[in-house]
């Protein structure tokens, strides 16, 4: 599984959005992509509970394990292809 975030979501303030894109934070000009590549998913029955992989941010790759709180599988409303999404956190 691979997840790519090509740009930051638009925030309520264009000033805040611009600052987050700057070299002070995500440096989008030099590093336009942040990626997460999963290598393992743990389940409790049919429900995923944890995902482990590598996060690349600002050109640096580090291992990351996230606990999964909520997940959903459904068809993308635009292209009708299956998608998976989840909410997770780092202990």
Element order, helices and strands?
A: EHEEEE
Q: Strands of the largest sheet, in order across it?
A: 1-2-3-4-5
Q: Percentage of helical residues? A: under 10%
What is the 3D form? extended
Radius of gyration: 15 Å
Task: Report the major sheet.
Answer: 5 strands, antiparallel
Number of helices: 1
Q: What is the end-to-end distance? A: 21 Å
Strand content: over 45%
Counted beta strands = 5
The mean pLDDT is 85
What is the structural class?
A: mainly beta
Low-confidence stretches: 4-8
Q: Could you walk me through the main structural features you see in this protein, from its secondary elements to its overall organization?
A:
- This protein has one helix at 14-21, and strands at 2-5, 34-44, 47-57, 60-75, 82-89.
- With 91 residues, the chain is mainly beta.
- Strands 1-2-3-4-5 form a five-stranded antiparallel beta sheet, with no helix packed on it.
- Strand 2 (34-44) and strand 3 (47-57) form a beta hairpin.
Q: What key phrases describe this protein's structure?
A:
91 residues; five-stranded antiparallel beta sheet; mainly beta
Brief rundown of the structure:
By secondary structure, this protein is mostly beta strands. Helices cover 9% and strands 55% of the residues.
Q: How do the helices and strands line up, and which of them pair or pack?
A:
Layout: E1 2-5, H1 14-21, E2 34-44, E3 47-57, E4 60-75, E5 82-89
Antiparallel strand pairs: 1-2, 2-3, 3-4, 4-5
